[in-house]
């Protein structure tokens, strides 16, 4: 079992910044990447960013140049720095950890609201 605990999020005006963090515990040796997804009301959950254990990153086109994903392997924590936020970034953000077991673990989600 892997437990993912998220923190951060909240309410910010358009153009502002927020930072999310996600700490993993438990059977972390099964994790081969960590990332963030988001789900806006009435929409499907979508990938925001992912980072592998080796540090390779991938971003959704909609956040490239504005969001940065990073990880601290010693702390088993992944971060998402979100700059130049837009109202369309409003969503529940979920931490995600794919594993070598063939299924991912998910955090509980944290709300990000960007006002115009």
Defining traits:
116 residues, 7-stranded mixed sheet, globular, mainly beta
Question: Which structural class is indicated by helix and strand composition?
Answer: mainly beta
Distance between the termini: 40 Å
* Range of strand content: over 45%
Total helical segments: 0
Strand elements, count: 11
Helix and strand sequence: EEEEEEEEEEE
- The outline comes out as globular
Quaternary structure annotation: single chain
Radius of gyration (CA) equals 13 Å
Mean pLDDT figure: 95
User: Helical proportion?
Assistant: under 10%
The largest sheet is:
7 strands, mixed
Unreliable stretches (pLDDT < 50, length at least 5) are: none
Summarize the structure.
The protein has 116 residues and is mainly beta.
């Amino acid at each position: 079992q892997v437990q993912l605990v998220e923190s951060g999020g909240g309410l910010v005006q358009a153009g502002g910044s927020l930072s999310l963090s996600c700490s993993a515990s438990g059977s972390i040796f099964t994790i081969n990447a960590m990332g963030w997804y988001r789900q806006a009301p009435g929409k499907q959950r979508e990938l925001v960013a992912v980072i592998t254990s080796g540090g390779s990153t991938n971003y959704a086109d909609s956040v490239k140049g504005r969001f940065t994903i990073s990880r601290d392997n010693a702390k088993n924590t992944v971060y998402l720095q979100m700059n130049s936020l837009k109202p369309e970034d409003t969503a529940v953000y979920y931490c995600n950890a794919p594993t070598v077991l063939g299924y991912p673990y998910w955090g509980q989600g944290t709300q990000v609201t960007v006002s115009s």
